[in-house]
Design goal:
3 helices, seven-stranded mixed β-sheet, globular, five-stranded antiparallel β-sheet, Glyoxal_oxidase_N, disordered N terminus, Glyoxal oxidase, Ig_E-set, Ig-like_fold
């Protein structure tokens, strides 16, 4: 009798769990050679992949956030954006093919000669540095076309931009992080034309670039000034290339084991950059397409580290929104289908990975996913119908959505205060050191046009997330610059000195986070990465000061070498971030 009762209870609990969590376990679908599943080792304290992070309670607020107009005219429509380390300036650039912007090249900078036969020149700037505090603009000269390109930062903070359109498609460009630096361009650096491709940082700080229109392959970016000649075919891209493409700008995330998670259209694999072999396949994600022009968005969720880490460190990938498989074709006929409303999460180091599905408050396509300093995620920009393309999106998504990765299933999403500016195709969003989100761009037009449904947008906004509620201001830590290192080494213990006027300060509620700046374009945030560092102790340091004893990430698999924003976070309220370099 006891055994049968126990069986009934067990079956009931399993049924309720399956219904409430909307988990979609999918069959293993072999389609690439040399694939196998890996077993996941136990995490410290028995913590499983995707489990809730240990720590103190978060400060509570119902404040929905706040929008502010930061810049009335950015000069260049922000099709691409990245925060440059140390100098705290954001690089915006668009496409040189239009031969127009709203800011001229500075005096003394020669105009770009477009056609020497007819003496046609372009004197407009297509790249600007924007001071994130003052809004001051510095126009820069670009000669190769950056339309729909990719990018990332080197260990020294230099921006490496790859690909683009036409004569820019094989180009690698370099812009160092200094106030007076200029672009250096190498038009033949890449072996294939890279238009709508994705660039990813590897564990050693080098770069991998994959895909692009008619480029169903990948390559490794050579050292500056050299040209690459070697290509590697991608069977994943070949098998996910449908009539509407839907596999451009694939999502690429460096896994905690040093391999690359690659998602295209609705399928994904784990690729070894050492052997160039696919070592793991993942279940197909149902519902539609997630990559350009379907244009969902993705994030590698914050990686939890400890003082003593397990051999296999969990990593969760989030994929949200997108469109149906034929959305691009339909939009061309003025039939704008509703975007996808689901948000899927996958523990890629699990022994039996499966997509776990939740529903967002609203459908979204062309949204930007941003990891916030406290480890939450915000989805901002985009539309509720259609897909990417010139005039192919309708019904702007004005309100951001907050996603709390450590929240309970079914309670992770919250809609926040909305903007009044449509941010459609070619919009951007990036996290800033002060905890705000910089939002710009939107150009659904082939050129700079204003007398249309969605004009070329040059206004730039800042959004303050809920943790910047004025009522929480006294809970905000302040990093003491001269009490915190500027550079750390892998695996070392280092101290972060903070000022905080609170009595209840412990290692359970005062944390240290590291955020890598993302290169953002076309709803993809390349190399966006957050490490939740292991904390040994939080010690009083006199007055209202404390020292966090934190452990640097153990290897480049967890954090590629380079610059990160370091945040102290008290009960979910972050400090202003300070630059720190890991080598």
């Amino acid at each position: 009798m006891r055994a049968s009762t126990r069986l009934i209870w067990t079956v009931t609990v399993l049924v309720l769990a399956a219904v409430s969590e909307a988990v979609f376990p999918l069959p293993y679908i072999p389609f690439l050679p040399g694939s196998h599943n890996r077993k996941l080792g136990k995490q410290e304290g028995g913590k499983k992949a995707g489990g809730r992070r240990r720590g103190g309670e978060e400060a509570q607020t119902n404040w929905p956030g706040k929008w502010e107009l930061f810049l009335p005219n950015s000069g260049v429509s922000a099709m691409h954006a990245i925060l440059m380390p140390v100098i705290n300036q954001v690089q915006f650039y668009d496409a040189t093919i239009w031969r127009i912007s709203q800011i001229k090249l500075p005096p003394g900078v020669p105009c770009h000669v477009v056609d020497p036969k007819i003496n046609r020149v372009d004197c407009w700037a297509h790249s600007v540095l924007v001071d994130i505090n003052t809004g001051a603009l510095k126009p820069l000269s670009l000669t190769t076309d950056t339309w729909c390109s990719s990018g990332g930062l080197t260990i020294n903070g230099t921006l490496v931009s790859t690909g683009g359109y036409g004569g820019g498609a094989n180009t690698a460009r370099y812009l160092a992080a200094c106030p007076n630096c200029q672009w250096i361009e190498y038009p033949q650096a890449l072996a294939a034309k890279r238009w709508y491709s994705t660039q990813a940082s590897l564990a050693d700080g080098k770069f991998f670039v994959i895909g692009g229109r008619d480029a169903l392959n990948y390559e490794y970016i050579p050292e500056e000034g050299q040209n690459n000649k070697k290509l590697y075919d991608s069977l994943l891209l070949k098998q996910t290339d449908d009539p509407d493409e839907n596999n451009l700008y694939p999502f690429v995330w460096l896994n905690t084991d040093g391999n690359l998670f690659i998602f295209a259209n609705n399928r994904s694999v784990l690729l070894s950059p050492k052997t160039n072999q696919v070592i793991k396949e993942f279940p197909q994600l149902p519902g539609g397409t997630r990559n350009y022009p379907g244009s969902g968005s993705s994030a590698l969720l914050p990686i939890q580290l400890y003082m003593n880490n397990a051999k296999v460190i969990p990593a969760d990938v989030l994929v949200c929104g997108g469109s149906k498989q034929d959305a691009y074709n339909r939009a061309g006929k003025k039939d704008f289908e509703p975007a996808l409303q689901d948000c899927a999460r996958l523990s890629i180091n699990s022994g039996k990975p499966r997509w776990k599905i939740e529903m967002m408050p609203t459908p979204r396509v062309m949204s930007d996913t941003v990891i916030l300093p406290n480890g939450d995620v915000i989805l901002v920009n985009g539309a509720k119908r259609g897909c990417s393309g010139w005039g192919y999106g309708k019904d702007p998504a004005f309100a951001p959505i907050l996603y709390k990765p450590r929240g309970k299933r079914g309670k992770r999403f919250k809609e926040l205060a909305g903007s009044t500016i449509p941010r459609m195709y070619h919009s951007i969003a990036i996290a800033l050191p002060d905890g705000k989100v910089l939002v710009g761009g939107s150009n659904t037009n082939d050129g700079y046009r204003y007398n249309v449904e969605f004009p070329t947008e040059l206004r730039v906004e800042k959004f303050s997330p809920p943790y910047l509620d004025p009522a929480l201001a006294n809970m905000r830590p302040k990093i003491v610059i001269n009490g915190t290192p500027k550079q750390i080494k892998y695996g070392n213990i280092f101290k972060v000195k903070v000022e905080l006027d609170q009595k209840d300060v412990t290692k359970e509620n005062l944390k240290a986070h590291m955020l890598a700046p993302s290169f953002t374009t076309h709803s993809i945030s390349m190399n966006m990465r957050m490490l939740l560092l292991g904390v040994a102790n939080v010690n009083p340091a006199g007055g209202n000061s404390f020292e966090i004893e934190a452990a640097a990430p153990p290897s480049g698999n967890l954090a590629p070498p380079g610059y990160y924003l370091l945040f102290a976070v008290y009960k979910g309220v972050p400090s202003i971030g300070e630059w720190i370099q890991i080598v």
